Predict the structure.
Amino acid sequence: MKQLNEVIKEVAAQSLSRGEVDLVIGWKKGDLWWQSYPAFVEGDEGVADLIWDPFCVPNLSRYLLEELDDKSKVAIFVKGCDALGFNQLLQDKRVEREKVYLYGIPCDGLVDPRKLEAAGHKWLSEVRRDGDELVLVSKEGEQRVKARDFMYDKCLTCRYPNPVTYDQMLGEAVEAQPQERFAGVEELEKISDDERFEYWARQFSRCIRCFACRNVCPACSCRECIFDIPEPRWLGKAKELSEDQFYHIIRAYHVAGRCVDCGECTRVCPVDLPLQELNRKFIKDINELYGEYDAGVDPETEAPLVTYNTNDPAAFTES
């Protein structure tokens, strides 16, 4: 990982100094050990801040929507989930391929700081990856733990740890070791309709409607969101369960067949709503009805819900 950090700085500096791009989007370290934020570098002074560490979780593809408005070309570092998000933006015709240069980064899983803190690892100064282990550095010294025990749940089920598209790959490809991603959905499917309704009602009642899930989602790329339209007003401002349910269900339907399963909606939610499970229900149903389809893998392959096939199932009609 240390070697990759140097490569990242080198390629970013070259792209900017040669005038090949106007902006490089990557990650930089925050003030605390668990903070790694998106970085927007336009000159040499910001290159030294670029990093790759176990906390570079933010999906950078979404930022292209704003940055390409006034930039002729942007370079961006992409993990597997970032590349899926980029391909979905391509398919939705929200970005132009020739305006983006992709540096691919193989990702063998990123670390959830909440899991480390829950295990008692709070007062750390640094966390770094060493093979299958994490090295936790504190004033007491160094401690090694299994990296997989502290990964984000979404990383444990990741099927595309290597970028599916890139212009230049940095580092060697890693092997995917995904757990079953629909296990949570299948558990919810076992309970009754009433119990499921009560479950989601409890979840949505905690929503503060901050729209963080929408704002971070690469599939939520509309130029004007339905929930921002002043007239007609589709979503009320009152804190009502019905309004919260309406927002989440409509958003889930809007990204159905286009969700790249990056899990960013769940990660950024300030009240920990299990939104990825809701989206995965749509993914699971689409796969069962129309055949396996992974959004973002190939922008040339049209999503099942925007195509028509005479062999498509029509369960709502009488046989």
In short: The mean pLDDT is 94. Residues 2-109+160-169 form one domain. The first strand starts at residue 23 and ends at 29.
